[in-house]
Amino acid sequence: MKEIMEYWPFLLPVIVIQVILAVIALVDLLRHKTYRFGNQFFWIIVVLFVQLIGPILYFTIGKRDS
Q1: Chain CA centroid to CA 55, Å
Q2: Which domain holds residue 32?
Q3: In whole angstroms, what is the distance from residue 52 CA to residue 50 CA?
Q4: Is position 44 within any domain?
């Protein structure tokens, strides 16, 4: 437990950033129905289960330009 507490100041910002990115990506996913690659179900799975990289992938290669 002591080891986790030593790394907590470094882990907390990463966790917060990941949650914020996932929420923003999910809101965008639910508002838009067209994607460059894949479908809505595929991108929801990627955003939720590929942690920090999933939302970044969605915004870079999945989201269709308006």
Answers
A1: 3
A2: 11-62
A3: 6
A4: yes
Domain count, the chain: 1
Both tokens of 62, joined, read 């999945």
Mean pLDDT of successive 10-residue stretches along the chain, which has 66 residues: 85 94 94 88 93 90 78
Where do we find the tokens 């595929």? 42
Q: Calculate ∠ Cα 52-3-5, nearest 5°.
A: 70
C-alpha closest to that of 63 among 48, 9, 42: 42
What distances in angstroms separate CA 52 from CA 1, 30, 38, 66, one per listed residue? 24, 19, 19, 24
Is residue 28 situated within a structural domain?
yes
Q: Does the residue 22 lie in any domain?
A: yes
Residue 33, burial from CB neighbour count under 10 angstroms (0-12, 13-18, 19+): exposed
Task: For residue 25, tell me if it sits in a domain.
Answer: yes
Place of tokens 């996913």: 29
